Amino acid sequence: MSSISSTTQSTNNGCFFATLPIKYPELNGALLGRNGSEIKKLNESSEYSFRIKLYNDNDSTDKKLFNCTHIRVDSYSEDGLRDAIKILRERIAILKENRRKRVLQKENEVNMVLKMNVNNKSMFIGKMGSNVKKLENDTSSRINVGNEVDEDGSVDINIRCENQDTLDKTIEHLKKHISAFPVFHTMKVDSKNISKIIGVGGSNIKNIIGKVADNTYISYKKELNGFQIIAKDKYTVETVVELINDQLQEKEKTLITEDLFWDSEEEA
Questions:
Q1: For a surface tag, which of 3, 29, 185, 203 has the fewest beta carbons within 10 Å of its beta carbon?
Q2: Domain identity same for 164 and 93
Q3: What is the pTM of this model?
Q4: Sign of the C-alpha dihedral, residues 105, 111, 117, 123?
Q5: Residue 263 lies in a domain
Q6: Which tens digits make up the pLDDT trace of 79-124?
Q7: If we measure between CA atoms, which residue out of 115, 119, 243, 131 comes closest to residue 183?
Q8: What CATH number is attached to the domain comprising 210?
Q9: Residue in 116, 114, 112 with CA at minimum distance from that of residue 181
Q10: Could you tell me which residues come within 8 angstroms of residue 131 by beta carbon, excluding any fewer than 6 positions away?
Q11: Domain region containing 230
């Protein structure tokens, strides 16, 4: 995007126009902006009125921005055209420099991966990514949450920072943030023990919950082939697992009632 390939006065409407070859198609999106917002800003910075259009000189039907090969600049005066080209070149120079800085920054970046339970993913990201954006602003880092779920039910939190010191502070900040989320754990059990763990009317589960911290939840998940435990911390989860194991080890008690001593003949 540098030299002018032609400067011509249109015979149709008296406009002047010029075409410039695009040397860095990867900058096309930034140059144009969302819905042409950046081009509008360039227009507002000039005292002249002009139009800028990106197009594919090899295939006029190809509307893909990345495939555009030329820029056409139109203005009603030659001064307007020259001013538009000057502004355009300045903008391209800024975009090139920003791109160079990003490449250099990426080369010097350090990164780290943290693990997080997939059940906390939506809480971590927030509505429309609001929580992640805030975390990025607070830590001067780039944060991305993966979609692939590991066998243990965790997802990756990919962190990129400019230097090791920033990365260390970011990790500490994120770990503190994640620690406020509830802990999820799935305890696999044999199907024959399900009723024994739950108890009549859920009595055993209620008894276990009554022995641990508030906001602890235990529920059987058929698709997980076990019980899902949700608690405020790892210690509470471990306590619940221990109590469930104790429940399984208890010997079944036989309830003896008078019915066992009924004489069927006397009853008859």
A1: 3
A2: no
A3: 0.48
A4: negative
A5: no
A6: 999 999 999 999 999 999 998 888 887 777 899 999 998 888 988 9
A7: 119
A8: 3.30.1370.10
A9: 116
A10: 123, 124, 125
A11: 184-249
